[in-house]
Design a protein that fits this description.
There is one protein chain. The chain is mostly beta strands. It has a domain of 134 residues: Neuraminidase. It contains two helices and 34 strands. The strands form ten sheets. It has a four-stranded antiparallel β-sheet with strand order 1-34-33-32, with no helix packed on it. A four-stranded antiparallel β-sheet has the order 2-3-6-7, with no helix packed on it. It has a four-stranded antiparallel β-sheet with strand order 8-9-10-11, with no helix packed on it. The longest helix is centred in the N-terminal third of the chain and has 6 residues. It is globular, with a radius of gyration of 21 Å. Keywords: Kelch repeat, Repeat. This is Galactose oxidase. Pfam families: Kelch_1.
C-alpha cells in the first residue's frame, strides 16, 4: 500500500592562564580569558550488536546504551540489548510486549518505550509504555491514553510529551498525551493538526511538534505546520516550517530546537537539506542546511555538538554525520564506518554510539577538545 510504504521509510572549559616571563610585563598586562578549544568527535571503534533491529528504539543514560524492540529476521522483538560503555559488556532484558515502530523518549533517569505495532500492520496498535531505569536496572509500565504508533516525542523536566502518530487502521492522530513522571499521571489534549512521521523537540518553555503527514490516510498532506505547546500556560499555538516535509528529525540544544532534513516529495524521493531552527530565548526562526539532503536521520546532543547521523533518500543511504557546534556556530562533518539509516543514537558520558537499522554493528565516537 502506498502510504504504508511511505511511512515505513520514516522513520562541556579549559582555562589557559598566560604567565608573563618578565616582571615588568606583570605590572602592566591585562589577563584575557582564553578561547575554549572547540569540541570535536573522534571515531573510537566499531562494536558488534547482539542482533540487528529494524525500526527499533533506544537511547542512553549514564553508562548504558539501550536498544529495544523492532524487527529482526522478520520477527517482532520484545528483547532489549543493553551495552555498558565502562565494561564493554552486553546484557539482555525484555519489553513487556514485543512491538516495532515504538517511540522512545528520555527523562533525566529513565527511557520510555511507548506504543507501537504488535503485528505487521496498523490493525494492532499498542498502548503499552515500558519504562526502564538504567541506574537501577528496573522496569515499570504505564498505558497510553490513546494507543498509537509512530509518534513524535520530547521531554521537559519530568514530563514526557507524546504527540501525533497513527492509530488503528492508519487513522492519523492529533492526540497529545503528557505523562508526569513525578505523579505518574496523564493529561491529554489535541494538537491543532495531525503529525504522522513528524518530529518533536523541547527548549525554553516550549514543546514543538513539527511537520509530518497531516490530513488523512486517504488524502495525506505533507505539512509545514508546527504545534507549539507552552509549558507555562498549557496552551497550544502554531508556527510554520520553511518547507513542509515528512520523516524529519527533531532535537534541542540549549535554547534552540532543530528540525532537520526529511522528504519534501516522497513519491519522487525528493529529500531536504533544510534545518529549521527555533531559538526560544530570542523567539526567532532561522534556516540552515545539512551537507546532504536526506531523511530518517538520527540525532543527539553531546557537549556543544548537535549531531545528525546517517539517513537516506529512498534511493541512497548515507554515511554522513553533520555536526553543528553551538559554541562556534559552525558546521563540520564526520563519517560512519558504513552507510546507515534509521539510526539510534545514545550519549554515554563522553561517548556517542550510533547504531543503524539492519546492521549488527554500531560506531562509537569520543567527544574531545
Amino acid at each position: 500500500m502506498l502510504y504504508m510504504n511511505i511511512i515505513n521509510r520514516q522513520h562541556g572549559y579549559a582555562a589557559l592562564l598566560m604567565i608573563p616571563l618578565a616582571f615588568g610585563l606583570l605590572s602592566c598586562s591585562k589577563h584575557k580569558d582564553a578561547t575554549p578549544t572547540p569540541q570535536t568527535l573522534t571515531f573510537q571503534q566499531t562494536i558488534s550488536l547482539p542482533q540487528s533491529r529494524v525500526y527499533g528504539s533506544g537511547g542512553a543514560i549514564g553508562s548504558k546504551f539501550v536498544f529495544a524492540g523492532g524487527t529482526s529476521n522478520n520477527t517482532i522483538q520484545k528483547s532489549v540489548d543493553i551495552y555498558d560503555v565502562q565494561t564493554g559488556a552486553w546484557t539482555q532484558s525484555n519489553l513487556s510486549l514485543g512491538r516495532w515502530m515504538m517511540t522512545s523518549v528520555q527523562t533525566d533517569n529513565e527511557i520510555l518505550f511507548a506504543g507501537g505495532l504488535t503485528t505487521s500492520s496498523y490493525t494492532s496498535i499498542s498502548g503499552v509504555v515500558d519504562i526502564f531505569n538504567p541506574g537501577s536496572g528496573t522496569w515499570s509500565q504505564a498505558t497510553l491514553p490513546t494507543p498509537r504508533a509512530s509518534m513524535a516525542a520530547a521531554s521537559a523536566g519530568r514530563k514526557v510529551f507524546l504527540g501525533g502518530g497513527a492509530g488503528a487502521n492508519m487513522v492519523f492522530s492529533q492526540a497529545l498525551d503528557i505523562y508526569d513522571r513525578n505523579s505518574n499521571t496523564w493529561t491529554s489534549t489535541n494538537l491543532m493538526v495531525a503529525h504522522l512521521s513528524g518530529a518533536a523537540a523541547a527548549a525554553g518553555n516550549k514543546v514543538m511538534f513539527a511537520g509530518g503527514y497531516g490530513g488523512t490516510a486517504a488524502s495525506p498532506v505533507i505539512s509545514n505546520m508546527v504545534d507549539v505547546y507552552d509549558l507555562n500556560t498549557g496552551k497550544l499555538t502554531t508556527a510554520t516550517l520553511s518547507k513542509g516535509r515528512i520523516a524529519l528529525a527533531g532535537v534541542a540544544s540549549g535554547s534552540r530546537m532543530f528540525f532537520a532534513g526529511g522528504l519534501e516529495a516522497p513519491q519522487t524521493n525528493i529529500a531536504s537539506d533544510v534545518v529549521d531552527v527555533y531559538d526560544a530565548a530570542a523567539d526567532q526562526w532561522s534556516v540552515m542546511h545539512l551537507s546532504a539532503a536526506r531523511c530518517n536521520i538520527g540525532t543527539a546532543v553531546i557537549g556543544t555538538l548537535v549531531v545528525f547521523a546517517g539517513g537516506d533518500t529512498g534511493v541512497k543511504t548515507f554515511d554522513t554525520i553533520d555536526i553543528y557546534n553551538t559554541q562556534t556556530n559552525t558546521w563540520s562533518t564526520a563519517r560512519l564506518s558504513s552507510p546507515q539509516t534509521y539510526c539510534t543514537l545514545g550519549v554515554c558520558n563522553r561517548q556517542l554510539i550510533v547504531a543503524g537499522a539492519q546492521s549488527k554493528t554500531a560506531d562509537v565516537f569520543l567527544l574531545s577538545n
